[in-house]
Amino acid sequence: MQPFDLVLIWAFIIGFGIIMYVLMDGFDLGLGILFPFAPDDQARDVMMNSVAPVWDGNETWLVLGGAGLLAAFPLVYTIVLPALYIGVFLMLAGLIFRGVAFEFRFKANTSRYLWDWAFAGGSTVAAFAQGVVVGAYIQGFETANGVYVGGALDWLTPFTVLTGFGLMAGYALLGATWLILKSEGYIQAWAYRITLPLLFTVLAVFGAVSVWTPFIDEMVRDRWFSSLGVIWILPLLGLGCAFQIFRSVRHRFEGMPFVATMGLFIFTYLGLLVSRWPYVVPPDYTLWDAASAYDSQLFLLLGLLFVIPIVLIYTAWTYWVFRGKVRAGEGYH
Questions:
Q1: Which domain holds residue 61?
Q2: DSSP letter string over 126-148?
């Protein structure tokens, strides 16, 4: 008998890495989605400068979550990657375009508009692809004997398109509230102005996804509606965060809209996990079915015990060093 259930520990680590990526990289992807709608080039400079010192560090969580998933639950890669090759490729291509735009935009003169579109287009494609992946996970995968047997485009359905647009709207909301925190003057006023329409869009899409999901999977329907238990606290807390965003914007608070938006994402994410627990490759394979050998998980866990604290300290230090407002004409490039 093993002294610890490492499957649960790894599930927590990977789940933590995913939500950290969503929160940390979500707001700079959101700024990219909002980029074409900014008031002017000066506002776009401020938007990009507000995330220039942190965007690459934010993606550390994507690497950690992806590498940990491969090491701890290899069956997920065996099934999910063949099912989502195109979606994952689009996500990575979008992230590459977004990253290149960071490096070249401030150095360009006549071609700056091309890098503006690269930043906006890469961010939009990456956000939409991530939302589609979430929708495909909710739908489940067609498998037989531990192998994906569906088609190359089974992931692309009206439901996944809806979740794709939903995550785009959510990231844009994160970006707008981040801009409230980091900007001032007419740029901050613009961010305040777009936050409530984005909030209502997010609530509408999330509501549609919540209504649609029980019709996709009977297990999810039974879990949520067989009894009105503790699970319903999560959507109520999410609505509480939405109300706090509304109230904070109306009262022109600067930090609370961003914090409340992160809360909205966290409770929505927990609701998704609770809906599917313990299935890591729905509808057939649990965490324990997909797990690697105990010794492999233990060996890798020992390494992560050193890596995760370093990443957390580095992240906290970076945000502390670059705290405060980003003003027009100033930057970190």
A1: 6-321
A2: HHHHHHHHHHHHHH---EETTEE
